[in-house]
């Protein structure tokens, strides 16, 4: 080891932990307790040139860390100029700014990546970061830029898994991972996770075998066999693995009516796509004989077989012993068992000693942290698998998961998450776990189930969040919009009760109708038909959620969760005519506005006015009144007037769906205490009956309840 400077020589993990006991907040540099390092950044740089290996790692951390794209817009102007300057060949990096600071002393503290912002010391299980702060913690600047501190940079701490290091009760460093996801080490770890869950997790699933799916792939009992075969299960009970993956285009070979008999004899592994070959390898190392892959277990040229098997698909994943999730494999040829290059790409490393007891010394590796490092939450948000529609229900319905990323493997089961780097779940794990829905989905297979009725309101909240998550995903075929969500609906239906109506529950019907675009618009998909206008399934855009008669015509009569041929809804509701105007007015918070509207689709270029939205106004006429929708955007035009030439000819209605106020009450002067939620309807071309389609969502506020009573009660047919 190169001779270290006096500051690095005196630095110890134990001392940093003692400082954390004085002052600690997760994800933040300690304000009151830190290790004082060099008195200037220049001194740190000189020490690195003199051969101090720890100073070299810290310096390289600055030289290789780019400025965040948005920072120059926020930083003081002089900092922006520093990042643009080419100082010693490191422009646009944190190094270029640190070099130019007037006060640039170096301070260190220990921290963790597994806790949420500002959590305290009592929640820490692993210290895996050293945080480096240059300069004062707060920098006063002019009024245009506010108060800023130079951003902290982070060094990562790690140890081999078999040499875990503890200071008191705190583990020091995350575990170093084997970059080869197909290594024996990773296969053994995956099997350890599965075994532990099956036999030792009290809050997880009872280890019972279920009936195999209709067809599965028999991978054999030897890891070296070069072929597999299709197996017709005929109700046999056994452990099996399910694969969740992206097709990413055409796949070959596929199961067809013609190839079924051939596949029962033999399937050469070498002709299979890389994802399937790797899934076979993983299944064999888990000690499980059967594997389910959609394209090899459902006849792809048979509509009837697809309709039968797609109805069972939710059960296939829920009853699997474990599901392999190929998170970063964008197509079938990508492969699952990758080799990561991230460790080699993050520069030099060194070690710090930790003395345990009287004489045992352990080494902790220190290197630059990848600010874009992979973890479960990044995979949940941005991976190839997380973008596909079908895979949401595969993820939610599977009780156990082996998730394969680019850099490491992960585990998920009802008890929680694990990763091969050994970090506890928390800030690095998905935040939304749909706990109440999961209790229903797995109620008959969990070891211990609370003897209390399900919280239906909480289940509806989870369902709304699931619809929102699903709306962010993509489908190759629009006709799959409801089928790809059907497994979730099937499992939740017994607890919710009522009827399932094209994605909306009759038991929660008013709230179910009140979905709206998360962004500005949500374009309806009408050809080919797949859902009525009042269902969230009618759009491919992002949606959010803010006992009538019904008629649903499923494509398959005994599968109300699948494709829809047609649907209509007959409701009796309070309505008020609405006029949609093309007029754009520059006014904000107009005191005469009674609410806002959000149309699903633009009707003209004026609807896309930047910063514009539709405000609602009550307009009185000799024969009554109507509601006017006008596009407003920020401005100070207090004297604007309605221009009747901009009125559209289409006939619209506002239909009151839900308000917490008692519209039937007797108080003629009472004002509404809560918003009134409405659907915006447009009459269809079918003039033989009062038939309407949903075209938007509206929220009315601060109304006299007696005015709501004047709305006309109509019986409407919604399609």
Automatic annotation (TrEMBL):
Domain of life: Eukaryota
Pfam families, per database record: HET
Stretches assigned to the Heterokaryon incompatibility domain: 240-394
Protein name, per record: Heterokaryon incompatibility domain-containing protein
Species: Colletotrichum gloeosporioides
């Amino acid at each position: 080891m190169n001779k270290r400077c006096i500051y690095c020589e005196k630095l110890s993990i134990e001392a940093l932990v003692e400082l954390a006991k004085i002052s600690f907040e997760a994800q933040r540099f300690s304000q009151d307790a830190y290790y004082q390092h060099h008195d200037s950044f220049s001194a740190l740089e000189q020490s690195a040139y003199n051969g101090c290996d720890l100073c070299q790692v810290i310096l390289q951390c600055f030289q290789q860390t780019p400025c965040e794209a948005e920072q120059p817009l926020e930083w003081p102007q002089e900092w922006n100029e520093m990042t643009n300057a080419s100082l010693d060949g490191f422009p646009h990096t944190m190094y270029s700014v640190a070099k130019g600071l007037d006060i640039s002393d170096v301070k260190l503290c220990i921290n963790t990546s597994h806790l949420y912002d500002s959590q305290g010391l009592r929640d820490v299980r692993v210290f895996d970061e050293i945080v480096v702060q240059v300069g004062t913690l707060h920098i006063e600047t002019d009024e245009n830029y506010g108060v800023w501190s130079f951003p902290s940079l982070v060094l990562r701490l790690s140890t081999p898994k078999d040499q875990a290091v503890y200071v008191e009760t705190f583990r020091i460093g995350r575990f170093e991972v084997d970059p080869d996801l197909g290594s024996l080490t990773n296969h053994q770890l995956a099997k350890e996770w599965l075994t532990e869950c099956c036999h030792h997790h009290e809050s997880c699933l009872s280890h019972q075998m279920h009936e195999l799916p209709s067809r599965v792939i028999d991978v054999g009992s030897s890891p070296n066999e070069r072929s597999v075969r299709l197996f017709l299960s005929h109700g046999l009970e056994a452990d099996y693995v399910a694969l969740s993956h992206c097709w990413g285009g055409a796949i070959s070979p596929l199961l067809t009516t013609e190839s079924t008999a051939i596949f029962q004899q033999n399937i050469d592994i070498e002709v299979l796509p890389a994802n399937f070959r790797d899934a076979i390898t993983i299944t064999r190392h888990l000690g499980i004989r059967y594997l389910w892959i959609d394209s090899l277990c459902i006849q792809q040229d048979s509509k009837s077989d697809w309709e039968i098997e797609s109805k069972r698909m939710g059960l296939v994943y829920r009853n699997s012993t474990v599901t392999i999730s190929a998170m970063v494999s964008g197509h079938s040829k990508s492969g699952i068992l990758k080799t990561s290059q991230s460790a080699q790409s993050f520069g030099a490393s060194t070690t710090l000693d930790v003395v345990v007891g009287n004489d045992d010394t352990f080494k902790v590796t220190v290197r630059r942290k990848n600010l874009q490092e992979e973890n479960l939450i990044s995979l949940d948000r941005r991976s190839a698998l997380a973008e596909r529609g079908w895979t949401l229900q595969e993820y939610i319905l599977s009780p156990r998961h082996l998730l394969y990323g680019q850099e490491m493997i992960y585990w998920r089961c009802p008890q929680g998450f694990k990763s091969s780097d050994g970090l506890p779940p928390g800030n690095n794990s998905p935040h939304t776990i749909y706990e109440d829905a999961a209790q229903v989905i797995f109620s008959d297979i969990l070891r211990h189930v609370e003897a209390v009725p399900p919280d239906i309101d909480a289940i509806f909240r989870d369902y709304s969040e699931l619809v929102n998550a699903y709306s962010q995903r993509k489908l190759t075929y629009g006709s799959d919009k409801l089928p790809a969500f059907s497994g979730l609906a099937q499992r939740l239906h017994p607890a919710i009760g009522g009827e399932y109506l094209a994605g909306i529950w009759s038991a929660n019907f008013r709230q179910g109708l009140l979905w709206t675009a998360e962004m500005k618009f949500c374009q309806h998909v009408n050809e080919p038909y797949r859902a009525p206008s009042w269902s969230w399934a009618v759009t491919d855009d992002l949606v959010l959620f803010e006992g009538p008669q019904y008629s649903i015509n499923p494509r398959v009569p005994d599968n109300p969760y699948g494709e829809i041929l047609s649907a209509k809804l007959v409701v009796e509701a309070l309505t008020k005519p609405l006029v949609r105007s093309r007029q754009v007015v520059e006014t904000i918070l107009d005191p005469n506005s009674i609410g806002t509207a959000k149309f699903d689709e633009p009707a003209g270029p004026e609807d896309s006015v930047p910063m514009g939205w539709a405000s609602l106004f009550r307009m009185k006429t000799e024969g009554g009144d109507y509601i006017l929708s006008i596009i407003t955007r920020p401005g100070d035009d207090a004297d604007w007037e309605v221009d009747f030439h901009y009125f559209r000819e289409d006939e619209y209605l506002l239909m009151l769906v839900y308000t917490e106020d008692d519209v039937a009450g007797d108080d003629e002067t009472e004002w509404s205490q809560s918003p009134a939620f409405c659907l915006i309807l447009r009459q269809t071309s079918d003039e033989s009956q009062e038939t309407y389609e949903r075209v938007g969502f509206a929220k009315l506020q601060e109304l006299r309840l007696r005015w709501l009573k004047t709305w006309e009660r109509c019986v409407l047919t919604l399609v």
